[in-house]
């Protein structure tokens, strides 16, 4: 990853980079930069998407997927396809967007649960060399699987969405979350 003038490059030896794990987890753009330096696929988890995915601010050669809960299995299959095409272990950075995107304030429970669903789906297809951070997100999803929709609407972000955009925004956010389509915003590139 090339360092941007306003951001130092992340040292792969830094424990925050989670380099020793195939599946990594962090929050916001800062987190994406920490764990994405040597990853091949970045899964952006924004359950209540009020801003577009900041693709241009993410490490450039990564494939970027805009996650949906309904597409968690498709995301896992995409990682397997990418791994088969590359012929070697493929690293994935799972990022809970939070708000603001650069460095989130508070705990974005809805994004963590979405990220946990993705990590859980990866484990179901045998991609289970997860960082403790990723494992914790998966455990949160497993424990609250039946309540994800409620968590979306009852969370701080869900209540803020209803206040700013009206109650009709919540069903729309929930419908988006349940979509099954794999949304690839940028494909993996071997070029740095």
List the total number of helices.
7
What share of residues are in beta strands? 5-15%
Q: Main sheet, how many strands, which sense, barrel?
A: 5 strands, mixed
**Net shape:** globular
GO molecular function: 2-phosphosulfolactate phosphatase activity; magnesium ion binding
Protein name: 2-phosphosulfolactate phosphatase
Written account of the structure:
By secondary structure, this protein is an alpha/beta fold. It has one domain (19-186). It has helices at residues 28-36, 72-86, 109-124, 132-144, 148-154, 156-165, 169-178; strands spanning 23-27, 41-45, 63-66, 92-96, 183-186. Strands 1-4-2-3-5 form a 5-stranded mixed sheet, sandwiched between helices. It is globular and about 45 Å long. The model is unreliable at 1-8 (pLDDT under 50).
Key structural traits:
single chain, 192 residues, alpha/beta, 5-stranded mixed beta sheet, globular, disordered N terminus, 2-phosphosulfolactate phosphatase activity, 2-phosphosulfolactate phosphatase, magnesium ion binding, ComB-like_sf
Task: Please render the helix and strand layout as text.
Blueprint: E1 23-27, H1 28-36, E2 41-45, E3 63-66, H2 72-86, E4 92-96, H3 109-124, H4 132-144, H5 148-154, H6 156-165, H7 169-178, E5 183-186
Parallel strand pairs: 1-4, 2-3, 2-4
Antiparallel strand pairs: 3-5
Helix pairs in contact: 2-3, 3-4, 5-6
InterPro entries: ComB-like_sf (IPR036702)
Protein name: 2-phosphosulfolactate phosphatase
GO molecular function: 2-phosphosulfolactate phosphatase activity; magnesium ion binding
